[in-house]
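hey m, so remember when u said the tokens were messed up on ur end? i reran from scratch. heres the input so u can diff it against urs
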Amino acid sequence: MIAIKTLNFQNEEALKSLKRECKLLGRIRHHNLIRIIDAFFYPDFKGLVLHFACNGSLEKHLNTNRDDQDFSKLGLSEYLSITIDVAHGMEYLHHDCPLQIVHCDSKPSNVLLDANMTALVTDFEYGLGGNVSTKGDVYSYGILILEMVTRKRPSDDIFVGDMNLPKWVSLAFPDRLADVVDSEVLKDVNENMEDNRCLVSFIHVGLLCTAESPRERPSMRDVSNVLERLKTSLMGDATASNLTSTISDLLRNTDPTEALQSGSQSSTS
């Protein structure tokens, strides 16, 4: 099974650039990145041949009506697994790819799920090179976490004026998270103290990634390491004290001065 993504390019220079990028991206191999199998650039048809992800996009699972029989009742463990997959894919693009690639458009519709619910990052072919920063990707990744646990889109009507998704969550963090976390996620963790701690830490990572200053945001490599340790805690293979150390490690790897200032502002609010 394959998927065909059709392209509509009017600009000849942009098309030439895409052709060059496809040659590079076709050689990229990572189990959390959608692979370009082939590309067609005929006069009357231009498209990419991709692996088919039978469970569709993460956006579909987040925004399908709860009464729909296709609705996936994803819980904290599923969210954590998906975000770890995405983090590994982004980490490869930022740190391990032969040429650093910045995604520039990380969002639920660009996360596809295969038959095993393994997450595959797609639509990263337009952020190759240039002056864009990986810290923008980290911010988008943080938004992805917050969107999953709250089931609120950044464009939701409740975000008016200077209110946005990260600020809305941060105002409830950590003592009033029941006011902002999705009811399905709350049901999933309410009876388990360890799961509650994992949820708080998971949201904390999302807030760190969406820090206002790019220098305060961690790298995707640090995020991957922290979330792997959170998953270990959620599976019962680590103590609750390890959760605190994971976040502390993440803070130590950001700019120390700005991280301290950020912490002070959070405690004040």
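this time it looks ok to me. Residues 76-96 form the longest helix (21 residues). if urs says something different then somethings off w ur setup not the seq
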